[in-house]
Amino acid sequence: MNKSANKLVVEGLYLQYGDNPILKGVSLTLNPGEVVALLGASGSGKTTLLRAVAGLEQPNEGRIAIGATVLYDGAAKVELPVEKRNLGLVFQSYALWPHRTVFENVAYGLRLRSKDAGDVERRVHEALTNLGLSALSQRLPHQLSGGQQQRVAIARALVYNPPVVLMDEPLSNLDAKLREEARAWLAMAMSDRILLLNYGRIEQQGTPEEMYDRPQTQFSAEFMGSNNQLPGKVAQVVDGRAMLEGDGWRLWGTARGNLKTGDVATGVIRLERTRIANGEGDNRVRTELITDMFLGDRRENLFQLGALRLRCYGKTTNGTTCWLELPQEHLWIFARPQELRSDHV
Amino acid sequence: MTARSFSIPRTAVVAVTAVVIFLPLGLIFWQSFLNAPFFNPEHRVGLAAYAFIFEDADFWTAFLNSILIAAGMVIIALPLGAALAFLLTRTDLPAQRSIEVLVLIPVFVSPMVLAFGYVVSMGPVGFYSLLAKDLVGDVPWNVYSLASIAVIAGLTHVPHVYLYSSAALKSLGSDVEEAARVVGANPLQVAMNVSLPMTMPALFYAAVLVFFLGFELFGLPLVLGDPEGRLVLSTYLYKLTNKLGTPSYHLMAAVAVCIVAVTFPLVLLQRWLLKSAGKYVSVKGKATRQKLLPLGGWKWVALSIVALWLIFTIVVPISGIALRAFVEQWGEGINLADVVTLDNFRGVSDQSDQVRAIINTLLIGTIGGGLAVACYTAIGLAGHRQRGGVARILDYIVLIPRAIPGLLAGLAFLWIFLFVPFVKELRNSIFSVWLAYSVVWLAYGMRLISSALLQIGPELEESARTVGASNARVLKDVTLPLIRFGLLASWLLVFMIFEREYSTGVYLLGQGTEVIGSMLVSLWGAGAIDQVAALSLINIALVAVGLAVALRFGVRLHE
Lengths: 345, 559
Ligand SMILES: Nc1ncnc2c1ncn2[C@@H]1O[C@H](COP(=O)(O)OP(=O)(O)O)[C@@H](O)[C@H]1O
Ligand SMILES: [Mg+2]
Prior knowledge:
The structure holds 2 protein chains of 2 kinds.
Chain A: E1 8-17, E2 20-30, E3 36-40, H1 46-54, E4 61-66, E5 69-73, E6 78-79, E7 88-90, H2 102-112, H3 117-130, H4 146-158, E8 165-167, H5 180-190, E9 193-198, E10 201-206, H6 208-213, H7 218-224, E11 227-238, E12 241-246, E13 249-256, E14 264-270, E15 275-277, E16 284-294, E17 299-305, E18 308-313, E19 321-325, E20 332-335
Parallel strand pairs in A: 3-9, 7-8, 13-20
Antiparallel strand pairs in A: 1-2, 1-4, 4-5, 5-6, 9-10, 11-12, 11-14, 12-13, 14-20, 15-19, 16-17, 16-19, 17-18
Helix pairs in contact in A: 2-3, 2-4
Chain B: H1 8-32, H2 48-55, H3 57-90, H4 96-108, H5 111-122, H6 127-136, H7 146-156, H8 158-171, H9 174-182, H10 187-215, H11 219-225, H12 233-244, H13 249-281, H14 298-325, H15 336-339, H16 343-350, H17 352-383, H18 389-397, H19 400-403, H20 406-419, H21 430-440, H22 442-454, H23 458-466, H24 471-500, H25 516-526, H26 529-552
Bound molecules: adenosine-5'-diphosphate (ADP) and magnesium ion (MG).
Residues 46-47, 92, 168-169 of chain A line the site of magnesium ion.
């Protein structure tokens, strides 16, 4: 929907509230026509980043530009007022104006751009129709359901064709019970690219496939899917591979980051890469089946390995003792547990 | 639900409430259509009373004055109150919490006391007038003019506007304003297209409220309008007795009906406005961060305006009273040091009726306030979680006393206590004043109670029902314990309101029913300035104690 061939470029954005740094040097690029999802735990700074781009928060350093237009430049002391940035922003709260009808909410941005009345009417109707709201145009926001309010907010942000549309938590209204994990799945399905934000820093960015198949950090690995975790100690490192050792088990995996023998490390493997094997073998562990759950199309099993719990899909054969295979190329071994990683690396 | 909506205690509460409201009101109506006082055996039904007052030029002058003063008050109080609300909710003005407390003080000072304060400090020979005369050679103001009355009344009603507009501004999340910025509106357009229209219902409500309060003003015009013979409707009614020499109850009733004919529609309008204002608030963003506007150097300008207003509405009148209470007399060429005395207070303590007035005022505030809160709670609980007719009827009948100015309510209760068998005996007890006070402040008290009740989520009571508690048990074990703090807070607020009240007691004043408020009106009429000053100061002290306790316990000064 973006006609302009202008990129949104954010460079080294730094922002703090009082002494509390919220964004610690965020850089990102949004290409024309691209759908980019910004993921991150609650409190990681997603809203703050969007608001800083929109001009609603004042960064301390960095640069924001769309094509040749500089929105913000800390060094050059450029700061374009919010209303001059010509962006679309859908608030998490929707922020509809309660005293204006649906039509007037959507039309406001066009009227400010002094389009002629017929043009405004036509474009608002077009936007409302596209979002399935045309029957509601004369209602007041409090007469709409949450989902309808959200669509009005989206129409309001799209109607004047901004080069970039920012949406804060667009999936939060799908279902209040939808877990954050499930939202990550949705974001993967919908986006061309994913940016993963971790406490004010971009942890990793890439296509959904890259993010899912080649996470660079344990944080990325754990954020993007359902995993088994195996905390242990590195027993051996051989060109890119490492052997992780735990209470009664040893497994080879792919080393991620710098590992040395004796390091505390964690093995992470996607649930769907963990296999039930029919007997002893390479990279297999002997486990006891604790319970299984019927999920409709498949069965999820919970196994015990010493003090660890492992999950995997598939049908168990006979008895409660099972061999699980954790293929070496899919078992990523990350140095140091997440919570010990310093914020100042 | 249907099974719960009918019960004997609930019906009794509703019935008693209806009787104490409709009986006096009905009496006024009936009396207004008689050509003589209703106890006069020769009375006949007719429109003679209305004919008389409509032919009286004074009535029309008073009517016009009432409207002018009320409109003037709106013009003065509305912009100031709204500006104050903006400064205290949306900017980084320093000391906001302390200023908010100070701003609310005028609400709790008796208008009679305030009016007297302006006379002694800014009247022709007031303390500050003489000071001004020394400085500029002349007194540059006249507090007795119609414009002065409107200005003083307007400035003392700023808190009412402040309360409603600040509530609206607080509930206006900054996200709706930011959304307008994002779609391209500059700050001025945001203010004109979003912030102002969204606070409009609250401002309009405040305007109607102030006009309404202006229309039923009594103490200020009584004290300040008297010297130049300016009447408003309530003082016209009050002076009718003197006019004819005989008790002209039918005329008073006709004037009363005229006043209610104006105030009742205003009360309904307020109710409607409040409801439609609530509609806007209900679509509130969840993750709103209120951003405060930095005032920069302007904060000194803002602070000086606030300080000037506080000086004029609180410091000037109250310091005047405090001074006047400790001097024998005051006028031109008098040296303060020569006239300092405690005689005014001795004078009060020598008069048994004034001592009784002080004791009664204390009793009516503490015990009476507690009883009133108990009654309000009973009424509130009768309508609590009820959707049927009973609740709706209650909803409306508690509004009615709001439309009846205290002076009229006192008059109506006087008639009841004079002539209704069985209650006649209570005429000379403070009970009569208490009943009138409680009815006059019913709507206010009900708002306090219902905001306390609103704090309880319905599921807390429902879960008690599901585990097997009867309605009565739920009330005793869940509802009442949960609103306990709210009830105590209401008691304190009602205490202050009852200490401050004056007009309701005016017609009920007699041996045994003296309260400071009505005593002030009567002493003022008799020209006993010394005692008015002393009693006023005592009254201020009583309210101040209530205020201090309320602040100590963190009671919100508004519902
Ligand atoms: N007004 C504020 N003052 C100080 N800290 C804030 C403020 N608003 C948000 N924060 C902090 O900034 C961090 C990022 O918040 P936010 O951007 O809302 O996170 P997200 O949208 O990713 O959940 C959080 O730790 C939050 O506590
Ligand atoms: Mg957020």
